[in-house]
Amino acid sequence: MAAASSICVLVSFASLLVYTFAIFLKPLAAEFGWSREGVSAAFSIAALAVAACSPPLGWLLDRYPARRIILPCLAIFGCAFASLSLLTRHLWHLYAVFLILGMVGNGTAHLAYSRVLTTWFRERRGVAFSILLGGGAVGAMVLPPIAEALIHAVGWRASFAILGAGVLAIGLPCGAQVRERSRVARSIAVPATGVSVSDGVRSRTFWIVVAALFLISVSQNGAITHLPAVLTDRGISAGNAAFAVSAMGASILTGRLLTGWLLDRYFAPRVGVCLFALSALGTFLLAGAHSLTLGIGSAALIGFGMGGEGDVTPYLLSRYFGLRSFSTLYGFTWTAYAIAGAVGPIVMGRAFDVSGSYRTLLLQLAVATLAAAALMLLLPRYKRAFASDGD
């Protein structure tokens, strides 16, 4: 289950769209004469659609077999991504496709599969989440250079078609294998104890998690979507910039695997503090990165922190609130993450269009990431009633 889910995440919204968007940003802007802010707005539209649709998707996942949600979302996502090969010079066309991608995005990503894995794993839930999210990390390593090579070989239009077809060819067969543990086994192994949605959203703990997630999402998504542009503006080749994105992917994978191991052994908020602090350092260094070495180092630190965040959030929710409304509450945290993810790329694009530089904004984003780390220190000990759901 963990492996099949991980492969699906490899070709999901959270991997394919997030990590290749930066590679397509400059070719699209050059082809149609669009500003970077205008192209970045498409990513923000997709993120806002994820924000709006994540709670309803979570509600469905808490009530129906995950496969009924995952397979239609994968099919729509793959077809819509491939349809970008037919893009016209009307900016609304780009926005309309990204709206569709965002609407089904979390039905292809971590939200859907986290629910499945909570029914299978107790003692090693942190490691299970790290395997799941490792698929996205592998995507961050391999998809940017693949996209860059495809654009160079066959152009951006054919590249969209090939990558979209890959979602259908890889995602649908693996998604068909994903299922929750049987109802009888689930009732014995993972009791669906926990708080209601209304009690969860009234909790101070929940809003601390949401606030920290919002702050780090602004920083991470802004950096990811503009990383190649930041580096190529400073004289680094497009190929080497794509390599830096891949290095970020490698650090995300390392961060997720290590974080999963740490979460099963140490208090999760303390793990989160360390990870977010590393991400803040990476953002600070990126503000002044004028060499490939420093660019790769910055990307690696940001990626390490980002990898950990993906593990920490669902783990915290299962520990503090139990499994009764896990997917719905996780959907609400995704709303916060996605809204921030919409803000980050637009603000980055706007900063460049106005000043011709990303430096000042990156320094501000580093401070915001440190604030997210500080918020982790405010989280209480786990509730004893729900801690057993993960032991």
How would you describe the overall organization of this protein?
This protein is mainly alpha-helical. The protein has a single domain (2-390), classed as MFS general substrate transporter like domains (Growth Hormone, Chain: A, Up-down Bundle). 81% of the residues lie in helices and 0% in strands. The protein has helices spanning 2-10, 13-32, 36-61, 66-83, 91-105, 110-118, 125-175, 183-189, 197-201, 204-232, 238-263, 268-287, 292-321, 326-355, 359-376, 384-387. Helix 10 (204-232) runs antiparallel to helix 11 (238-263).
In the CATH hierarchy, the architecture is Up-down Bundle
Helix count, DSSP H or I runs of 4 or more residues: 16
Order of SSEs, N→C?
HHHHHHHHHHHHHHHH
The CATH H-level homologous superfamily: MFS general substrate transporter like domains
Predict the CATH topology.
Growth Hormone, Chain: A
pLDDT < 50 stretches: 183-191, 387-391
Mean pLDDT: 82
Total domain modules: 1
Task: Write a compact overview of the structure shown.
The chain is mainly α and 391 residues long. The protein has helices spanning 2-10, 13-32, 36-61, 66-83, 91-105, 110-118, 125-175, 183-189, 197-201, 204-232, 238-263, 268-287, 292-321, 326-355, 359-376, 384-387.
